[in-house]
Design goal:
There is one protein chain. With 140 residues, the protein is an all-alpha fold. The chain has five helices and two strands. The longest helix is centred in the last third of the chain and has 17 residues.
Amino acid sequence: MSALPQHVDSAIYEKVVYCFAEALGLDEDEVAYDSLVIDDLGAESLDLLDIAFRLERTFDIKIPRGGIETAAQKALDDGDPYEVDGVLTERGRTVLADAMPEIPREEFREGLKSVEVALLFRVATFYRLVMELIAQKAAT
């Protein structure tokens, strides 16, 4: 397993890894921070829902379905389209990349389809989302 970035809370991360391992029938040491959820860990769309459900129960949070893309679309408040005919616009890719800093920017390539966005998700994406939701919950 690769070393975790310094900003990662290891106690929270271990619980995230446990949720992934349980949902996908993997050993915890098979789940790495930068693992691609679909390509590396073999998750399918139903598995993503199971992972989200497990994270919600574990951390007592609510993960909005389609939350990352919805937030990116809302960030385009100037009227620029997020996508055209299912393909992300340049501005849509930029806003999405800003919303998902754990993913290398070059992966938000020209021609990226909105249905392909889930292929970019990493364990780090879910970790970041959990941390953001925990912080939001604590602020209320």
